[in-house]
Amino acid sequence: MSFGTQELFKNVNLHINEKEKVGIVGVNGAGKTTLFKIIMHEIEPDSGKITFENNARVEWLPQVIDDDIPSLDITVYEFLSLGRPIEKLLAEQQNLYDKLATVTDEKEQQEIFRKTDKIQNRLEYWNYYSAESELLKIIDGMNITNELLKKKLNELSGGQKSKVAFARLLYTSPEIMLLDEPTNHLDKESKEYVTNYLKNYRGSIYVISHDIDFLNEITTKILFLDKRTKDFKLYNGNYDCFKKLNAEQEKNLLHQAEIQTKEEEKLKAIINKYATASGKKKKMAQDREKKLEKLLKDKIEIVPKSKTTKVSMSMDHESNNIPLIVENLVFQYSKQTPIIINNLNFSLSKGEKFLVVGENGVGKSTLLKLIMGILIPNQGQIKIGNKTEIGYYAQEHELLDNNKNILENFSDINITDRQLRSVLGRFLFYGDDVFKKVGILSPGEKSRVALAKLSLKNANFLILDEPTNHLDPETQTIISETFKEFPGTMLVVSHNPNFVDNLGIERILLLPSGKIAYYNRETVEYFQELNNAASERGRHF
C-alpha cells in the first residue's frame, strides 16, 4: 500500500486463525487505521488482498465516530435495537412460509427451504429468543442511562455517539470486530464491562489501542506494524509478551549484525592485503572474496530506529496581565435546546495554566469555541487583552482542510518552504509526506499536523482541546514536557490525568456549575472515570 511515492506496506504475507483477539500496534503513521480501511474496502491496496473465511461479517468501530452514526430521527434505543435485524428476518421468514403454502414445484420448494434455513441460522446466531435481554445487559454494563436511551441520535454529543456506537457493535455481534481506540470513550465501570465482554467474545477481535492495560487483558496475539521495514510481525501473547520478545529480537539482531560487520572488515582486510599476490596467497584472497560475497548477500539489514516528534512552543511577546475575562456568559444553541453555559464568570492571569473539566455535553468545547469567536454568546462578554495572541488546538482538527495536502494547510503562515519543511520534519513528515492530503492521514498524523501549526503561531495564549487524543504514549509525554515549559497562558480541556498532572495546572473550572477549585489529580481522575468520553467529538458540544 502506497500513498504517492510514500510506501506504507511492502509485500506483507500473513495468516491469522479464527477467533483470535489481536492487538494492532505501531507508531503513529505506521498504517494501523489504513489497514482497517483496507479490510473494510474503504480504500484499495496497490496489490494483494485480504480475505476472510466463511463470508465472515466484519464491523468497525472507528476512532472518530461523528460521521459514522447517521443523524436519524430515531431514538438511541431504536438505533441499538436495529443492531440485530431480528424483526426484519422474522418477517422475511414468515413471507417464505406463506409462499411455501402456495408453491407446488419441488425445485422451487427446495430453494425456499434453503432460504428459510439460512434465515434460521442467522436468527439462532443472534439468539433471537433472548436478544432483548442481551441488549439490556449491554445497556446496563455500559452505563447508558434511560435519559440517553430516549434521546434522538441527532441530539447526541460526540462522546455519547461513541458510546452508543460501541454498544450497538457489541450487540451486533459480528464474526470479526475491528476496534480503533475503543477505551477512549469509556468510564471505569464501562471499561471493565467491555473488557470482560471482549475476553469471552465468540468471534475474532482486531483492536488498535494505546491502552496497554486493555491490550494485556484481552489480546491473545499482537500484530506489530513496523514502519521502518514496511512489514508486519505477529507475536503470540499479550502486549507485555510482545514488548519482551520484540526487545530480545532487536538485541539478538544487533548482536548478529555486529558479528557480521567484524567478519566483513576481517575479510576485506585479507582481500586488500593479497589483492595483487600470487600462488597460495592469491587463492586465499579469492576464497575470502567468495565468503565476503555470501556474507553480503545474507547480511542483516539494521533499519534506523524511528525518529520521535520534537515539539517547541515559543511566543513573540508577552500578553496583558489579564489576557482573558469571561463575564456573565450565557449560551444555548437554540431556544429549543437547554442552556449549555449559564452565567459563567472567570478570568485568567498572565502565565497561568487553567484546566476545564466536566461530564460529556456540559459545554467544555463550546466554551473554547465561544472564546475563539467561532460561536456567539447569547448574553455576557468575553474580553481578550489587546496584546493577547491566541493559538487554538481543536480536538477533532476542524481547522485543518482535509481536501488540501499538508503543505497547503500552512499557506496562511508566513514562512519559507525550507523553514516549513524543517518544522514538519520535527513532526515526522519527511520528503513526499508533505504532499499527502490531510483527509487520508490517520488521526494521530492529523494531530501532529495540528501541533505543527500551533508551534508556528508563536502565540502567548494557548487554548487546547483534548490535545493528547490520538497520540501514542511517547508523543503524549513529549508534548506534556513542551507545554510544561511554555511561559505563556494556557486554557486546557483534558481528562488525561497523566498529561495534565505534569503541566503545572493551578486552578480548575468545573462545568456546568462554573465553580473554580485548586488543582488536584483526584478531581481529574474522577471526571475521567465519570466522563463516558475522554474526548468530546460532537458537532454541538
Describe the protein.
By secondary structure, the protein is of the alpha/beta class. The chain folds into 3 domains: 178 residues, P-loop containing nucleotide triphosphate hydrolases (Rossmann fold); 55 residues; 207 residues, P-loop containing nucleotide triphosphate hydrolases (Rossmann fold). The chain has 17 helices and 17 strands. Strands 4-5-6-3-7-8 form a 6-stranded mixed beta sheet, sandwiched between helices. It has a 6-stranded mixed beta sheet with strand order 13-14-15-11-16-17, sandwiched between helices. The protein is flat, with a radius of gyration of 28 Å. The C terminus is likely disordered.
Protein traits:
single chain, 541 residues, alpha/beta, Rossmann fold, 3 domains, six-stranded mixed beta sheet, 17 helices, 17 strands, 16% strand, disordered C terminus
Provide the fold topology.
Layout: E1 2-3, E2 6-7, E3 21-25, H1 32-39, E4 58-61, H2 76-81, H3 86-100, H4 106-125, H5 131-141, H6 146-150, H7 158-172, E5 176-180, H8 188-199, E6 204-208, H9 212-218, E7 221-226, E8 231-236, H10 239-273, H11 280-297, E9 324-331, E10 341-348, E11 353-358, H12 364-372, E12 379-384, E13 390-393, H13 417-426, H14 443-455, E14 461-465, H15 473-485, E15 489-493, H16 497-500, E16 507-511, E17 515-518, H17 521-530
Parallel strand pairs: 3-6, 3-7, 4-5, 5-6, 11-15, 11-16, 13-14, 14-15
Antiparallel strand pairs: 1-2, 7-8, 9-10, 9-12, 16-17
Helix pairs in contact: 3-4, 10-11
